[in-house]
């Protein structure tokens, strides 16, 4: 702040004013905070003050006293009063991101310990899983009335406040799995009247209050498994208040008995019940408490003794259609009785990981006329003999996965004349079992993840109805021409993950006329020969990625006129292989992926035969992503013919630039990915043909600026990812040009923490349209002293001047000044002394006003005591000893006993010039600050060039920012630098002599006094 010294009688007047206002000040304690804000923000408008003050002084018609009053008013008008306004938060979330109306805060690093407070009220989904949240407070979700799905699983929640969910009136799904809720208190779920699904598995729940679930009248699915309920009475307390409950899972709760009377009148509407993995000793049902039950799971717990089955009501489970008794240990007689009770309704049976009587159980199950699906996973079958499924004549789906099967007798499935789906995956078969040939109705066969090494011509003989064949993850090395000769209905063939090096003519002949999907990825193919797929007229998806393909012969894709997707990424394909002769037959191709190959173009000039010119239906193209080192360029017409292209990906292609006319042939382009290249700059003309662009990926491209977007015309751009580039400032013009932008990702950029980014910071916090992903973790890289600071923590109050309340401040600032100064005099004396004295100067004459006394000194030396050796040893001998100037030094010429403030003011006004010896110590000194303030105001008030700045050391500009006045003077007034090489000081002393001799008239030309090394 400014600082002035006036006559001692003014101090007396000041005391009078304080006592006159003391009673008024009692009621104005609330203004104390405003005082600090005013003192801290006083320098905000200093630049504007100087400018306006100069204009005022040029106005000869304005009285001098009124000019000073105008200057003081302007200072208060420039206060940044936005500091008192709570900002409206937009989509710059601290710990989350928004995706399709869902706030995703899952698996954060560091993980969240509480629910974030900045979730927008418009979200419909909130994912907080895999964090470290310990408590749900009442206020956590009070502003989310539209929320329909809430994921809180995998936290450590042990407490939920009453009414925490009360405002979630639209919530449909709530997931609290894997937390620490040992007790469900009364009214825990109050307000969730529309909830339909509740998952609260694995919490260690031991106690349930009788009214915990009374509000969940719409609940249809409840999963409270893997807890410690122990007794069915706890289950009864839960479901008695759930009239619409259909699906109940209570497995793994330590129940030892099941008595139907414990659930009487509370479970009549259930259609699905899972009570598996409980150590039941007795299962007792005397009345039909599950009249509508269609899915029942009771297996999964191994104990030393069999469960006792006492079901006296024969109507249970007469309507069950899906039964899971996996791992159930029940006496054979009870099991037989149990299975006979579902004789008229059962359609699907699961007997996985059974220990006893599996063959007998299969025979009993297969006698049920309605039973069509049989799942026998994780059983130690080893060998399937011919009588194993003799009675299963009605089974249409058989699952034998993970059963350690090595051999299958040829007629093992002969009785299953209606079998359509057979799963033999994850076994140890070394060849295709001959037994499959005797199933004429088979439509799906899964032989994946076995030890099959070869395929014979008769392996799939007579399978004319087979539609899906899965042979992936075996050890097949070659395909014979005749292997698929009878599979005329086959639609999906999966051969990925084998060791196939050649497939000969397996796909040349029209043996597979209906095949639409062929997976050959992850094999050892090296060459695709001409006409290799000529017989696959219906093929739509062909996967050849992750092979060792080096050569694509001309017309190798002939016949694939219906192919829509071709995956060739991660091979060894050369540039010369991507030609018209190779690709022209794919006239209906929609997607082509060529990434991670050895494709590189060295010339940006037009190609004589663009490779994709005949692929007019292509919508997605990914090229080329290098394996080899070296920079490359794309030919200007490489996209010629792709009039319907929607997505173009050339990520990680080591490109140096893109031709300006590259996208002239792709007017429909909506997604462009040019990330991970060495593109330093992009031209706006590049984007002029693609006005429909909606997604732009430009991460890791070394871009120094996004200014190209200002004139690019991307008014439909909705998504932009620009991570880890070289730009540090984002301008308002760039963001204003992207009118449709809803998501921007700028992680990893080297932001500058200064006023150039003030607009971007304010926009990030306040906009309610565009989500700036991870904005609160943006770090500053410049200036050096702010490196590592969060960008949004940078205080922009000194960068902008708000005019929102200028009219109000202009009418009240003088009243506030009286009140605040009077109250805070003894607390902020030095900060407000200048403002107080300045105001009194408007009412009374000051001894310094219009001072006409003769100059007693040529110069007053302002310096810090740490710089006194230089002043005494260097400055004083030169200026007084050799050049004969009369200097004023505080340790020598100040009047003893006189207030130091008066001494400073008198010395400056009694000197023709003021020399400030600037160093870092000087900037830290309060009294040195007072001296330069008084001297600078004298310059401002008298319009005389009375100030000379001498810098003893290099001081970066950011360190001068608190002394804005000094930086202004550096631009307008004379200043010198003490040479770092002290042997060449003659020019410095000559310049200083000329500065002292120069006249004080500001209108005269100044000498250029800057002395450099």
UniProtKB/TrEMBL annotation:
It is found in: Membrane. It holds the Pfam family TIR. It is a single-pass type I membrane protein. Keywords: Glycoprotein, Immunity, Inflammatory response, Innate immunity, Leucine-rich repeat, Membrane, Receptor, Repeat, Signal, Transmembrane, Transmembrane helix. GO terms for molecular function: signaling receptor activity. The chain crosses the membrane at residues 67-86, 805-828. GO terms for biological process: inflammatory response; innate immune response; signal transduction. InterPro entries: Cys-rich_flank_reg_C, Leu-rich_rpt, Leu-rich_rpt_typical-subtyp, LRR_dom_sf, TIR_dom, Toll_tir_struct_dom_sf. GO terms for cellular component: plasma membrane. The keyword rRNA-binding does not apply. Residues 855-996 form the TIR domain. Belongs to the Toll-like receptor family. This is Toll-like receptor 22. It comes from Argyrosomus japonicus (Japanese meagre). The lineage of its organism: Eukaryota, Metazoa, Chordata, Craniata, Vertebrata.
């Amino acid at each position: 702040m400014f600082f002035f010294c006036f006559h001692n009688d003014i101090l007396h007047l000041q005391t009078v004013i304080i006592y006159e206002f003391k009673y008024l000040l009692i009621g104005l304690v609330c203004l104390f905070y405003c005082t600090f804000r005013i003192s801290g923000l006083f320098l905000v408008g200093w630049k504007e003050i100087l400018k306006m003050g100069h204009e005022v002084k040029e106005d000869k018609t304005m009285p001098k006293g009124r000019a000073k009053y105008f200057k003081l008013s302007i200072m208060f008008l420039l206060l940044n009063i936005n500091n008192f306004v709570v900002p409206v938060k937009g989509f710059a979330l601290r710990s989350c991101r928004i995706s399709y109306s869902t706030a995703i805060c899952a698996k954060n690093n560091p993980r969240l310990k509480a629910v974030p407070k900045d979730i927008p009220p418009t979200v419909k989904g909130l994912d907080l899983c895999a964090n470290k949240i310990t408590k749900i407070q009442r206020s956590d979700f009070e502003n989310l009335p539209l929320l329909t799905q809430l994921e809180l699983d995998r936290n450590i929640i042990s407490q939920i406040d009453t009414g925490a969910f009360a405002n979630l009136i639209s919530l449909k799904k709530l997931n609290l799995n894997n937390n620490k809720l040992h007790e469900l208190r009364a009214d825990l779920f109050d307000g969730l009247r529309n909830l339909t699904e509740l998952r609260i598995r694995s919490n260690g729940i031991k106690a349930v209050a009788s009214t915990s679930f009374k509000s969940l009248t719409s609940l249809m699915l409840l999963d409270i498994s893997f807890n410690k309920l122990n007794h069915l009475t706890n289950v009864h307390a839960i479901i008695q208040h759930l009239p619409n409950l259909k699906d109940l899972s209570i497995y793994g709760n330590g129940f030892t008995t099941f008595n139907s009377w414990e659930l009487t009148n509370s479970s009549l509407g259930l259609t699905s019940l899972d009570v598996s993995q409980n150590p039941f000793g007795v299962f007792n049902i005397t009345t039909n408490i599950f009249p509508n039950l269609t899915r029942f799971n009771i297996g999964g717990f191994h104990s030393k003794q069999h469960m006792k089955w006492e079901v006296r009501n024969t109507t249970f489970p007469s309507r069950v259609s899906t039964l899971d008794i996996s791992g159930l240990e029940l006496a054979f007689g009870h099991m037989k009785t149990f299975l006979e009770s579902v004789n008229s309704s059962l359609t699907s049976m699961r007997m996985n990981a059974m220990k006893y009587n599996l063959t007998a159980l299969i025979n009993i199950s297969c006698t049920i006329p309605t039973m069509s699906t049989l799942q026998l996973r994780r059983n130690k079958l080893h060998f399937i003999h011919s009588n194993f499924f003799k009675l299963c004549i009605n089974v249409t789906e058989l699952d034998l996965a993970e059963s350690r099967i090595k051999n299958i007798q040829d007629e093992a499935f002969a009785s299953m004349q209606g079998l359509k789906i057979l799963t033999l995956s994850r076994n140890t078969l070394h060849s295709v079992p001959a037994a499959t040939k005797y199933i004429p109705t088979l439509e799906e066969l899964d032989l994946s993840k076995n030890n099959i090494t070869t395929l014979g011509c008769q392996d799939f003989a007579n399978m004319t109805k087979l539609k899906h064949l899965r042979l992936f993850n075996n050890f097949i090395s070659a395909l014979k021409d005749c292997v698929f000769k009878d599979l005329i209905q086959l639609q999906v063939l999966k051969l990925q993950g084998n060791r196939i090096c050649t497939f000969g003519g397996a796909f040349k002949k029209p043996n597979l006329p209906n095949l639409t999907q062929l997976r050959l990825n992850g094999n050892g193919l090296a060459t695709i020969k001409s006409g290799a797929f000529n017989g696959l007229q219906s093929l739509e998806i062909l996967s050849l990625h992750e092979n060792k393909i080096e050569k694509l012969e001309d017309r190798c894709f002939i016949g694939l006129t219906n192919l829509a997707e071709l995956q060739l990424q991660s091979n060894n394909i050369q540039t010369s292989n991507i030609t018209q002769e190779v690709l022209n037959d794919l006239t209906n191709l929609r997607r082509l992926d060529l990434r991670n190959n050895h494709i590189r173009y060295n010339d940006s000039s037009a190609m004589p035969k663009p490779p994709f010119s005949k692929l007019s239906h292509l919508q997605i193209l990914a090229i080329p992503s290098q394996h080899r080192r070296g920079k490359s360029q794309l030919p200007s017409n490489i996209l010629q013919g792709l009039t319907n292209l929607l997505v173009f990906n050339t990520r990680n292609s080591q490109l140096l630039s893109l031709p300006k006319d590259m996208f002239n042939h792709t007017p429909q382009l909506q997604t462009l990915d040019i990330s991970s290249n060495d593109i330093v700059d992009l031209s706006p003309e590049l984007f002029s043909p693609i006005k429909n662009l909606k997604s732009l990926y430009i991460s890791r491209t070394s871009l120094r600026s996004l200014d190209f977007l200002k004139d690019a015309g991307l008014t439909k751009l909705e998504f932009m990812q620009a991570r880890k580039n070289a730009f540090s400032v984002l301008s308002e013009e760039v963001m204003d040009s992207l009118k449709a932008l809803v998501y921007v990702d700028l992680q990893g950029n080297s932001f500058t923490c200064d006023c150039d980014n003030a607009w971007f910071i304010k926009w990030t916090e306040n906009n309610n349209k565009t989500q700036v992903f991870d904005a609160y973790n943006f770090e500053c890289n410049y200036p050096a002293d702010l490196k590592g600071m969060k960008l949004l923590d940078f205080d922009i109050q000194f960068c902008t001047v708000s005019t929102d309340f200028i009219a109000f401040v202009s009418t009240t600032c003088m009243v506030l000044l009286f009140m605040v100064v009077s109250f805070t005099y003894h607390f902020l004396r030095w900060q407000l002394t200048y403002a107080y004295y300045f105001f009194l100067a408007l009412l009374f004459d000051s001894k310094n006003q219009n001072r006409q006394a003769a100059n007693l000194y040529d110069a007053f030396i302002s310096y810090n005591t740490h710089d006194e050796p230089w002043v005494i040893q260097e400055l004083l001998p030169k200026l007084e000893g050799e050049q004969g100037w009369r200097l004023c030094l505080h340790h020598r010429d100040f009047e003893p006993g006189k207030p130091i403030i008066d001494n400073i003011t008198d010395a400056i006004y009694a000197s023709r010039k003021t020399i400030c010896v600037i160093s870092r110590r000087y900037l830290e000194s309060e009294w040195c600050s007072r001296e330069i303030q008084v001297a600078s105001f004298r310059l401002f008030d008298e319009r005389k060039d009375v100030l000379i700045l001498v810098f003893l050391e290099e001081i970066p500009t950011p360190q001068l920012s608190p002394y804005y006045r000094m930086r202004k003077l550096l631009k307008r007034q004379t200043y010198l630098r003490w040479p770092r090489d002290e042997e060449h000081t003659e020019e410095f002393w000559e310049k200083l002599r000329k500065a002292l001799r120069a006249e004080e008239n500001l209108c005269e030309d100044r000498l250029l006094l800057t002395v450099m090394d």
